[in-house]
Amino acid sequence: MEKLKELIKLGNINEIESYLSLNHQISDGDIKNNTFDLLIYTIKNASSIPIVKVILDNYQQLYKNLNYSLINGNSPLASALSINNFEISDLFIKKHADINYINGNNDTILFYLYKHKILNKESLAYIIKNGVNINALDIHDKSFLSYIIIDKEYDLLETLFLQYTLYTKDCILNLLYLSENNNACSTKKLKQLLSNGIIQSDRLHISFMDVAEACKHQSLNFIKRYIETGISYEFFSNHSFLSDLLCTLYNKNKIDVFQYLIEKGTQFNQFDYLNQFDSKGNLLIYYIITNNDIKMTDYIIRKGAMINVRGQLNGWYHVIYYALHNEPLFKFLVKHGADLFISDVEYNKILNSGKFLQNFNVSFYNVDEEASTFYSACKNGNLKIVKHLLQTNIPNIHKGLCYACGNGNMEVIKLLIDYNADVNYKNEPLAQACYLGDEKVVNLLLEQGAEPCPSVPPIKNYLTIAFKSNNKKLIEILLKHGARDIYCKNDDDETLLIYACKSGYEAMALHILTRYNDYPLESLDVKRNTALMYACQTGLFDAVQYLIKHGADPNRSNGCDETGLIMATRSGFLNVIEYLINCGININKRNKNGETALIIACKLGYIDIVKYLICHGVDTTISDFYCKLPLTYALKTKNKEIVESLLSIKETLKKDIINFETLKNQKVLLMYACKYNFKNVVEELIQHHADINKRNKKGETALNYACKYGNLDIVQYLIEQGANINNITNSGETILMYGILSEKTEIVELLMLYDVDWQKRNNEGNTAVMYACKLYKCDILEFLLYQGIDIDVVNHDGDHPLIYASQYGHKNSVKLLLDYDCNVDLKGAKGKTALMFSIYILTGKSFALTITRIYTKSSMHVSKIK
């Protein structure tokens, strides 16, 4: 191999051929590997096409594909181009070497040559002519053009643009005409002709990044000469990118390029980029103001920069904040409409006095946008201040229109519309005017293009607003301009008709019903209510009549299984109920709780409705799902008229009905009658064979209820009718104990008169005397003691009557027990006597006498108590 390399260096083709013909054995791996290649070696050291051909011919299998590279990225074609040997390059291209080949380092031949500083203008021209992809990006996403712009490779730039510069057909024809006719042409005219006729070939793409790099690193003349075609309308549409570029140019003091770009933007009618935040969250105007540059501030304001915005330069401050310590700049900004976030009245004072800095105390940091002077002026109709602030672009002029419409400030509204405020901004201007009920403003907005039937959420149903305010004139204006949004639904699936009936707006409901024959009467909201159901609920009698006559189903039920009849009953609208019943509605329909209209009327005490339902054959024996009857609820509400009306129906007192138990506690009607003191009902029930000794879930009978709630007449009647006076509840309580709970001595005396068992204890071992001691009923206690009841009896916890009386502080009860010689030394459950409770628990002065009496009767001494 070394001998062959030496012969190649000497360039003697005959000796090379002789050497190769002698068939010297050289392995393929030595000829071509990752670090050495004989063909690339030959190109660099011989630069002779005949020798290159000899190598290619002798090693055809190795060099069948010329698109390969060494570990350093070099390839055969790149090697030939690096020495400007275009004959060898042509040979390789004929043998299918790819001019756009990408080496192992992910670089094209063009990038390889440039990065290794072996590219010159001749090789670049050759590469371009042979179809290189000049717009390819390297692994850093940079184009070749970007590299040579940043590195200021003017020879390569000149070559690049020369190769890609073409002329229009008109330009070429003009040049030919001048030549053939020998017409004189000045240098200036020729330059102008050529300049106007230049077009850039589509093959060369000047990206936004290329333009940006040129602006940052090249002169304005260079940009105008080479890059100007890349500064297009699309370039100025990339607001965020352009904002970053302008901020960088200003901070680098490249003012000529800076202003050139802004002027180009003006030509394209583009201004929004001046108000776009850069990647740091700041506006261009911030950098200019912080540099105290009034001249440039004036320039960009005239070009469309806004001064009433805020960004995050050192925090979320408004533009005006950065001028607070520069009085001339501050005055300049206020003069040009800076919003000071004070009231329009205060702002007016500042303008009139010219004293911009005195007593001014606004931080402009995170200031509430709603405090804007502009919004304040729009709200208050301050035309002068609104005009002043409109000198510069307002960030949200449309919201100002909403405020003006909400307050009916016609002159301000007209001015804002002249400044292109959006009359359909979030559908709010027209909505605000409708809420205000200002017909003139509504009419103006509609004439200026406000959409009467908005389709963009959040939808504002203007007709709904107008109906709610009962403004007929407003409704007429909306309809005149094409408002047809009566078919829309809100978030609760309510149509406008449902909403009207639900809200009780009968005029609105009838307007819809009479004007729109195809309106969906059976439409359901999320609760499965129809317009008819709501009309029944809110008592819209005329609407109910119209709906039913035009096909609405009165027997339809909602998600709670309630019909219009039940809803009308709950609201107490008798006239609606009468109409529904006359229309044949199911009078006995039950809702999901099993309630009928009658049960609901009884619950709510609607006597007229109950009577009407009874007159029209309602079933008084239907209970709800808790097994409670209409009579049950009538008794609970203590409504005597309803009770009498129900009792007038024979079926109400059927034996199987009156002994019907409620689901929860197994109460029967007789117990409710005893509890709520309806003696006549008690008598009726017993006469109709009510079970007088029926027990509920707790083991209580009707007599228990009568005793507990102190209804003496009923107690006596029940006993006379054979009620079990010695009934024991599940907890072991006697009728006498229930009588004591009533706190009525007469009931206790009556029970004792009928030989009630007064010695019986409950499940806890408590006696009737203990109940009396707990309740502090001295007259009952005295009556029991007089009967000779054992007063020293102890319950299961070890307590006795004196303990209870002492523990609860019942002084008179203690006195009575002492008078009947109770055992004062008897200990209770906690091992304490009554004296101990009196001292430790009830040591008030009012109990002092009792303590003394207990002490004198006790064999214990106070010193023994610990």
TrEMBL record:
<feature type="repeat" description="ANK">
    <location>
        <begin position="72"/>
        <end position="104"/>
    </location>
</feature>
<dbReference type="Pfam" id="PF12796">
    <property type="entry name" value="Ank_2"/>
</dbReference>
<dbReference type="InterPro" id="IPR036770">
    <property type="entry name" value="Ankyrin_rpt-contain_sf"/>
</dbReference>
<keyword id="KW-0677">Repeat</keyword>
<feature type="repeat" description="ANK">
    <location>
        <begin position="560"/>
        <end position="592"/>
    </location>
</feature>
<feature type="repeat" description="ANK">
    <location>
        <begin position="764"/>
        <end position="796"/>
    </location>
</feature>
<dbReference type="InterPro" id="IPR002110">
    <property type="entry name" value="Ankyrin_rpt"/>
</dbReference>
<keyword id="KW-0040">ANK repeat</keyword>
<protein>
    <submittedName>
        <fullName>Ankyrin</fullName>
    </submittedName>
</protein>
<feature type="repeat" description="ANK">
    <location>
        <begin position="797"/>
        <end position="829"/>
    </location>
</feature>
<feature type="repeat" description="ANK">
    <location>
        <begin position="593"/>
        <end position="625"/>
    </location>
</feature>
<feature type="repeat" description="ANK">
    <location>
        <begin position="527"/>
        <end position="559"/>
    </location>
</feature>
<feature type="repeat" description="ANK">
    <location>
        <begin position="698"/>
        <end position="730"/>
    </location>
</feature>
<feature type="repeat" description="ANK">
    <location>
        <begin position="401"/>
        <end position="428"/>
    </location>
</feature>
